[in-house]
Amino acid sequence: MKNTGTETNMRDGANASIWQSALVDHTATNHSDYQEVYDALIIGGGITGLTTALLLQKQGKKCVLVEAKNLGFGTTGGTTAHLNTFLDTTYPEIDSDFSKETSSLIAEGTKKMIEMIRTNIQDLEIDADFEFKMAYLFSQNEKETKELQSILESSQAAGVTVTEASENGVPIPFERVVRFDNQAQFHPLKYIHGLAKEFEKLGGQIIEQTFIERTELHEDIHHAKSDQLILKAKNIVYATHIPPGINILSLRNAPYRSYVLAVKLNSGAYPDCLAYDMQEPYHYFRSHEIDGQKYLIIGGADHKTGHEDPLKAFEALEEYAKKYFDISEVSYQWSSQYYVPVDGLPYTGHLPGGDKGIYVATGFNGNGMILGSLSALLISDLILGKENPYEKLFSPSRLKPIAGFNEFVKENADVAYHFVADRFGAEIIKSTHELAKNDGKIVEFDGEKLALYKDETGKVTALNPVCTHAGCIVNWNPAEKTWDCPCHGGRFSITGKVLNGPPQKDLESVSLHEIASGNK
């Protein structure tokens, strides 16, 4: 389904997620006191930003939240909303790269976040479809089975409730399976709008459709500037999934896309669980009912942002789904972005190299509903001057000389490769007539390298293809109709507007007439 959500429920691509059809009973007031010095300015209207804002507002702080588009525009609106006590960074990996004590701390945090989300939904009377579920993780070959045994043992040692099971909850062959109890699922957009409603009820202020271009520190007060206004705050929280601009966190996090289908089944036998295989990349499953209609939600086919063919990723995911399920209709398909930290754990806390009072949260590795909530609790505690057991562990300034070193080298070598290689090999065209309608390409036209898109009417939009973040060349994403940077995950609209990622400036618009006439 194409992205036809309401103005308050749009997303960062051409494809709508299953959550966007929700009719939420909250609309941001979109005002603030421009003379006020806020205790905290939270930038980003996803689960991390809204949870942080509400936690601080509850403690008597005066906060304002600013969102460049609308609440849930980014990954929160595209998640599959699994709530787990096990993460993509497995407990054996945490044991090895950090410690067994760290695994226990992570396990405790994940359980607390599921309970916090459940409590928020109950206390604030949010109709967010929260349900506890069992989750099954299953192997399909000897290598995976050996890994699964290690996961079982380390998870149990960390304090996670997990046991061997005899079935995996989905009609897919398996060799061995374990069951995690007390997992959950919910409706992410209904949830964050419920948080937003309570935040404003307590005096918090929300401003949508406002992109913060830069911040400056004057006498211990941050001045955040957009093209419309200036906001002042003692603290700034970047809840934008990756902080903007050039900083060390762009080097320590690799951007990935994950693909999702929401399908109807002929049999009506929708799995009543969460399930995960162990392929690389792995597939994940759950069901959800929207307006009386059940859907099976299947995700997978992940790859680095700006790499590989998104259309082929969707095709591969659909082929996999149809192999095991009797699908009558693919009702929704969408993709979403996440960031993989080099050592496996989030970077949450003070921005390295940033001014005093600037906080970030990134590197959730596909577990943003849990780790975004846990990061919100950490940041709110830091601003409130409270101790928090995750402060040192999640510190963005931490240095792990062994853990993550190979990933750091690999990912940044990949960035260097694309910085150089993508400057060569563009298709040479003599006329924009060579470009198909509803298509985009990086081309060489009259000696200039351009990002060209032709819409269904034949109108051509030309952009400078150099990403405004670090100078890499963007690639066309034909599935989401966006320009995606293969280096640090910056994404831009057809017209060059920043959608998400670290860029702070839009792609430069180019006049084809000036190029053709030799005036550029």
UniProtKB/TrEMBL annotation:
Family annotation (InterPro entries): FAD-dep_OxRdtase, FAD/NAD-bd_sf, Rieske_2Fe-2S, Rieske_2Fe-2S_sf, Rieske_Fe-S_prot_C
Keywords, comma-separated and alphabetical: 2Fe-2S, Disulfide bond, Iron, Iron-sulfur, Metal-binding
Keyword tRNA-binding among record annotations: no
GO molecular function: 2 iron, 2 sulfur cluster binding; metal ion binding
Cellular compartments per GO CC: cytoplasm; membrane
Limits of the Rieske domain: 427-520
Pfam families, per database record: DAO, Rieske
UniProt keyword Disulfide bond, yes or no: yes
The protein's name in its UniProt record: Rieske domain-containing protein
Phylogenetic lineage: Bacteria, Pseudomonadati, Bacteroidota, Sphingobacteriia, Sphingobacteriales
